[in-house]
Design goal:
The chain is α+β, with helices and mostly antiparallel strands. It has one domain. It contains 4 helices and 10 strands, in the order E-E-E-H-E-E-H-E-E-E-E-H-H-E. Strands 2-3-4-5-9-8 form a 6-stranded antiparallel beta sheet. Strands 1-10-6-7 form a 4-stranded antiparallel beta sheet, with no helix packed on it.
């Protein structure tokens, strides 16, 4: 599965950047995996699911994600990254979401790459994309 991450919401400041995109039932992340929202901050990738069953199915298999920058040049966050239980920071079974820590996803031990990603997305704003996501799931 491949899609352009096109935020519905973007917030940028000198200390915190955040974006999220929500998906309708006909869009591929939701139709395929029950993912209704993807939230990206400098610290976390958070994936929200329609139900505990869909989240459990997702967590039952090791996953990966490929991030490609569609702007000019290249970014340090581009590449294929694991989304396994080792990268999970927390799992909420009441509201059906998984926080993946960018520190663990990127294997850096610091937030700098996650912060770069969140900053690039927030600077781009809403309604357009500089991020293609593939191999999602």
């Amino acid at each position: 599965m491949s899609f352009a991450y096109t935020p519905d919401y973007a917030f940028e400041s000198s200390v915190h950047d955040s974006t999220y995109e929500t998906y309708s039932s006909s869009e591929e992340p939701r139709a395929t995996w029950g993912v209704n929202k993807v939230d990206i901050t400098g610290s976390f990738l958070t994936i929200y699911f329609d139900s505990a069953t869909e989240m459990s199915t997702w967590r039952g298999t090791d996953r990966s994600i490929t991030l490609d920058y569609t702007g000019s040049g290249s970014q340090d966050w581009e590449g294929t990254w694991d989304l396994t239980s080792s990268e999970e920071y927390s799992v909420n079974t009441t509201f059906n979401y998984i926080h993946y820590s960018w520190d663990d996803v990127f294997g850096t031990g610091i937030n700098s790459i996650g912060e770069d990603l969140a900053d690039d997305l927030a600077q781009n704003g809403t309604g357009s994309s500089v991020l293609d996501v593939s191999d999602f799931g």
